[in-house]
Amino acid sequence: MTMEILLNIASGSIDKRTLRRRTFLGVVAASSFLLPALSGCTSSPANTLRIAYQQWGSGKVMENFLSSISGQFRAKHPDLQIQLIPLVAAENDYFTKNELMMSSDSTTPDLVCEDTFILKSDVAAGYLQPLNQRLEGWQPWNEVFDSAKTAVTGEDGKVYGMPTGTDTRALWYNSELLAKAGLPMPWQPKDWTQLLKDLRSLHKALPEVIPFNIFSGKAQGEKASMQGFEMLMYGTGDTLYDGDRKKWLTGSQGFIDSLDFVQKIYQEKLGPPLSRALDANLTETVYSDWLPKGGLAVALDGGWISNNWVPGAPAEWPEWSKVMKQAKMPTQKAQAPGYTTLSGGWCWAIPARTKKADLAWEYLQTIATTANMTAFNIADNGVAVRKDVAAQPKYRSYTPTIQFFTSLVEGATFRPALAAYPQISASIQLAMEKVMIGGSTPKQAAQDYDEQITKIVGADQVMGASGR
């Protein structure tokens, strides 16, 4: 199979836009990663439906869910074989593996789980087929929140995915540590100035504790861009992209101010030591060590992280809901709406090359029943993107934090899910890392970013943040 993919690259049958987003060496390396999942695969037999998804380490949430769906589906199609294809990979590697599979008739899945932030990039590369005709008159689509519909709509106005869930982000804080440092409970900083002041108080009162974690730098990948930088920048009033003018923005004071905040965290030792902050395994350390063991006071993170502490989880922590509380991430100067949150999420999509689109759609309809989506959001500790699911009593009470994180959806911002975004995101991570390590001032790093994105998208696709 690897040889076939490489021959397809050489012959040009793989869309050249893919190669602009992935280096040739990256493609070669990623193709070898596919072998464990698809060893010896050829074109899918007529009685086999292939479902591809990302598996997070040893996590089995999606596998267990799809096994249940497959059991329901086989009740209608007893002769059908369903092949689940878990891709165990870091986020960026998953995207590459997924694209490689979808680029060939012989390796394409029939249904694939897509991160909404990469969706438009895959649409631009010709990997996905629109669902508009299938969605007409289908009631579950009417239950999807408008913001989630936008996240799965391509630049051509067509819908390419069915959202399964979203997420929101906020400040998780150890109430025992903050109370020990003399901060008021419940804690809710009103703006960045107060947030930094309180973190400095924590550092002074509890020098053995890390005051704050914000994912930052290249090693943290998209977490740094979305859960870190964009949680800051979208609280300044500036944006990365002007949707009305369809231009990427340069010369943004909000961009500079966000980098300045990151620099303060690391210069003033309010965050983890640089050696840990730049460690690709930081996530595991934060969730399984620092937070449950009281080594970290405040974390800017997503609503799902308590999954790490529930019974049977790797870092089981029975007391987590009594200790860990939540506060909204404040905007820079307390401007409306008073908080910032970024939402992402995943969706199911049908690859363009599949020969079993009708069967894949039928399987997707089984996934999307109210009962099944409620069960999945609960198992995945996710935030519902559908009105019918959000109204279910089981959903509204399944975890102590779900109503807080669901309440943030109304004011959520989505990343500019455009084809160029993955490269833009990498440039953001580089800018963050420069100010973290002291290699650049925030202004210098922002100017470098402006130059990089101009090269990425072209001078005709950028404009000054002031509208010039």
UniProtKB/TrEMBL annotation:
Keyword Protease: no
UniProt keyword Ribonucleoprotein present: no
InterPro entries for this protein: Bact_solute-bd_prot1, SBP
Keywords: Sugar transport, Transport
Coiled-coil spans in chain: none
Signal peptide (from-to): none
Pfam family, one: SBP_bac_1
UniProt cross-references to Gene3D superfamilies, sorted A to Z: Periplasmic binding protein-like II
Protein name, per record: Multiple sugar transport system substrate-binding protein
Organism listed in the record: Psychromicrobium silvestre
